Amino acid sequence: MLNDQKQLNLLGLATRARLLVSGEEIVLAEVKKKRATLVIIATDVSDNTKKKIIDKCHYYKVPYKEQFTTAYISHAIGKKRSICAFIDGGFANSYQKLDMS
Questions:
Q1: 18 is in which domain, residue-wise?
Q2: Structural domain tally of the chain?
Q3: Is the pTM higher than 0.85?
Q4: How much is the average pLDDT of 51-74?
Q5: What is the CATH number of the domain that holds 63?
Q6: CA 71 to CA 44: how far, in whole Å?
């Protein structure tokens, strides 16, 4: 539970550092450019959206995680979003390490 909050804080921090992009189209563009280092998909997105994002992540070999609801992600980054992606390896690694601890 504590790590969940730390991960949400990291989303906010990365947003302020301009190292997190959000929104379906922007995230897909970053995945295609191979700049996305980790994609976060809200657990409550539509099946079509989820499939589209996951397929692109598989094709371009970008790790992704289905975690948090749209409300949690939106609150953490300050705008209504259900898809976001780190475009910085350091933030992505820190985020994933919190999953393991």
A1: 2-100
A2: 1
A3: yes
A4: 97
A5: 3.30.1330.30
A6: 9
